[in-house]
Amino acid sequence: MLLVEDNDDLAETIVDRLRAEGHSVDREKDGDDANELLRHFKFDIVLLDLNLPGRSGYEVLRALRAREDDTPVIVLTARSQIDDKVIGLDAGADDYMIKPVDFRELSARCRVLSRRRAGRSSNVFSAGPFVFDRAAKRATIHGQDTQMRAREIQLLEIMIDNMGRMLTKEDVADRLYTFEEAPSLNAVEQLVTRLRRKLEGTPLVIKTARGLGYMAYLADDD
Amino acid sequence: MMTDASGHSLQRRLLVSMAAGFAVFLVLMSILLWTYSRAAADRTHDLPLAGAALAILERISVGPDGATVDLPNSAMDILSLNPVDRVQYRVFVPGQREITGTADLPVPADATPSASPVFYDADYQGAAFRFVLQGRPFISPDGRQWVAVQVGQTVESRTTQQLFFFAAGLAGLAVLSLIGLGFVWVAIRTSLSPLRQIAHDLAQREPADLALVEGSPPREVRNLFDAINGFITRLRRSRALTETFIADVAHQTRTSLSALQGHLSLAADAEDPGQMRSRLVKAERQAAHTVRLTNQLLANAMVIHRSDRTSLRPLALKPLVRDTLAESLRESRMRDISLSFVGDEIGAGEDIIEGDTLSIREALRNLIENAVRHGPPDNTITITLNGTEQSVRLSVEDAGPGIADADLPKATERFTSLSDKTKGSGLGLSIVKAVAQGHSADMRLGRSSLGGLEVTLIFRRIVPILLLVSGAVFAGDTGAAQTLVIHSATDTPAMQPLIDAFEVRNPGVDVAYVEFQTVALHQSMLRPETIGKPDLVISSAMDLQVNLVNRGLARRIRLAPGIAPPPWASWRSELFGFTFEPAIVVYDKRAISKRELPTSHRDLATFVRENEERFRGRIGSYNIRDSGVGYLYATQDSLQGPQALRLFEILGRTGMKTYCCTSDMVAATARGELAFAFNIIGTYAASLAETSPHLGLHFFEDYNLVMSRTAFVPKDAKNPDLAAAFIGFLLSEDGQRIILKDTPLLPLTPAPEPTSSFERQIRDQRGAFLPIRLTPGLLTYLDDLKRREFLSAWETSLRRDRRSSSSLLEPSAR
């Protein structure tokens, strides 16, 4: 992991916390240095402060995305102005947090991001007793096949890819069905209910917020 | 904050209301003024009418056939003093018969013959007329009889004068009103000076100076003065409150930080790891509290700062609420909370309010935060968005314990945390309240059906207005060829060069030229169904043209600036003369020597009388019964003095021959049949005489009548603009030059360098020319009675037999 933060005290606590959780963390103070480093090395997650000496965090992020580097980035900012957040997300940040940062929340967000990334980059996603093999289109709990149908597997894939992100019913429908299939939102609801039942007993939870949509997360994050 | 610049000004208000008062005054005055100026204009214009009526009355006589009248030229001359208006007259025996004039002139129903003039307005043939009606009693064989004279004029000049009187009067009043307003303005400024003093006092102040405004204001602004001082007092109190708030904030933060510091130092000093751990846990909790407190203080400050109305923009509430909720759900502590959003009721476009995204987001977050913090970990939170015609309601309710009804009023106060257990900062709801106030939204606290608190914000909705822009459709010109129809009593060859030049200058224009005799043209204009409607009427008979225009048949023309015919050659901007054609004598040099030629009309009579036998049958002139121009010359001659009739008598004795046209007379003279012909159109004669060197042209020294060919555009012309363009062309420098160079006619404007002997002669005789003026005066000899009298006198003078010539032309034709 890479932490780009100019305040030494804050940086030290974050680095110590993350190291205590078993991550290997590099730290940069300067936007230009961070940019150089990111040009030559790959990181699993970047924690990026926006207010930096040299290049601003925003510029670092833009340069990163311009190189088609999809390393997950969490933006840290002390400003509460929403505009900064939007710019950050537009520029390609995966998440943002406002300082002072709650360490537990930070760890949780990092885990979600690394899960999302891992789920996408490798064929096997596992959480506790739950294992999902993307290539085989097969999900098992304690080695037992969950007997998921094709649509359920598809939905599972979508939810894992967007872990920690709110998807509206329409988003899900759009990704599940082709244009000709004329998705019904009811069908999506029933599908989610069925999938949720099959995931009982696993740390993978699909949360429903009525009127808003669905979000997947791992219950063992806390 | 600055005052709204568009706000009303007291001064302007006073001025506007005073101006409104003045305007009402002006309106009332202008009604009076209008009536007055009408009366004044009527008086001015009634005088010539009365004069003309009197002049006609004087010439009424009783003959064997009853009353008759010899229409005096002076009557028309009096009316011609008014240069624009058309004239109508009528002489009649009321209830019995018409004597002369226009028979169908309107007479008031209740009119009785009276020796004093009666003036009245009436419409005749679609135009407004002012009439005078005056009578005179006569003793006739049938007893006492009234003869009435009715004279009328159109009211254009009167209306113009009335407008002028009115405008002049109104302008004076307007100036007076402006001066009055000026005084009002000064008065207002003076009386508003105490206000300026206060403004000056306040403007000079330091922000910290909250002393009351001193002074003894006049009674009228006492209230304002007191209000300002009252406001200053409240401001002082408010500032004290702000100071308290800052003190509170300082207190809260410091207390929080001290507690944190205390826990940390205790932890640092602790020897027992268990004790240290418990201290650190406490310190961490305290730190979290401090963080939240600081966040909310900042949010509070931010919201208050942004409550300035200038940061409000139209925004859609639904997506904003949806995004804020989706965002807050990502926090891990929201995982067990059951959050739902009910926003289906409100459609797209129905959720538009004037708002500030940041503030509303902050308010919503605080409401959710409150529900999460004060409720159970598996709390149920429902956010509902719905709307009515005028408003959008956003409510947040939860299943938590809520607030006791008694505590509701206190809930939105700062630093009032109703629960010690949950460690609220006491700022959450006060932030929401500040946001509501900043948006002029209604904030309501109540009990939710879920069991907890329900907070509702009611925003005012913006109804989008659709602007419909309608496009105008423009039709282009068709560009088709136009035909200008000219009916004219002028030889085609004389006009052809002008027509050709006009066609060249106006591509696509075709001129159809129809030639008439003057009288036939006049008749055809009175009976348009027989010949068709021309666009332009040109004739050398000026009196007949004036008659047509006086009947209201012509259209007003606006000539291009710079083109201005002399005043005698235009009337009412409707009839325009464009040539200069003197009446001259053409003589046979072999019969008369230049030396013995008479120099004046009087001498001509003497000369002919003295040489009666020599010239017997060898003098020619127009047959004035047939020729319009001849009649015009003869009647105009008769106006110059009694010698005209004497001349006719003498000419008659010599057996004068009469002709229809100038060309015949010139030809006869050239052949040696005539010794001389007089009152012939000089321009024609000059060009005809060029081929016969023995012909001479002669001018008189006392006067030489000048006729001008005139043109007008009939009201019902199909191409009036084109016809007006043709008149403009005739009068333009270009047109006049062509008349001089390429036609036998002479232009109105004399040539700078005479090229022919005729032109030279004209230049040398400049002073002795008497142009016939285009005025209603020309109507006198068109009067039926008058014309009959004149022709019979003329024929008697020439010893002609009336019966043999009366069949030539019906009198009504003239």
UniProtKB/TrEMBL annotation, chain A:
Give a GO molecular function annotation for the protein: transcription cis-regulatory region binding
Residue ranges of the DNA-binding region? 122-218
Which InterPro entries does this one have?
CheY-like_superfamily, OmpR/PhoB-type_DNA-bd, Sig_transdc_resp-reg_C-effctor, Sig_transdc_resp-reg_receiver, WalR-like, WH-like_DNA-bd_sf
What is the protein named? Two-component system response regulator TctD
Residues recorded with modification 4-aspartylphosphate: D49
One GO CC annotation, please?
A: protein-DNA complex
> What is the originating organism of this protein?
Rhodovulum imhoffii
Extract the PROSITE patterns matched here: OMPR_PHOB, RESPONSE_REGULATORY
Task: Please give one Pfam family short name.
Answer: Response_reg
Domain Response regulatory, chain residue ranges per copy? 1-114
Print the keywords alphabetically: DNA-binding, Phosphoprotein, Transcription, Transcription regulation
UniProtKB/TrEMBL annotation, chain B:
CDD domains documented for this protein: HATPase, HisKA
**Where are the bilayer-spanning segments?**
14-36, 163-188
Query: Where does the record place the Histidine kinase domain?
Result: 248-463
This entry carries the following GO cellular component terms, namely: plasma membrane
Report if keyword Transferase is assigned.
yes
One matching Pfam family is HisKA
Keywords for this entry? Answer: Kinase, Membrane, Phosphoprotein, Transferase, Transmembrane, Transmembrane helix, Two-component regulatory system
Q: What is its EC number?
A: 2.7.13.3
Query: What EC class is this?
Result: transferase
Please give the chief subcellular localization of this protein. Answer: membrane
- UniProt keyword annotation of Nuclease present: no
Subcellular location(s): the record lists: Membrane
Against SMART domains, the record matches this protein to: HATPase_c, HisKA
- Give GO terms: molecular function aspect only: phosphorelay sensor kinase activity
**Reaction catalysed?**
ATP + protein L-histidine = ADP + protein N-phospho-L-histidine
Highest taxon of source? Bacteria
Residues covered by the HAMP domain: 189-240
Query: Would you tell me the protein name for this molecule?
Result: histidine kinase
- Organism in which the protein naturally occurs: Rhodovulum imhoffii
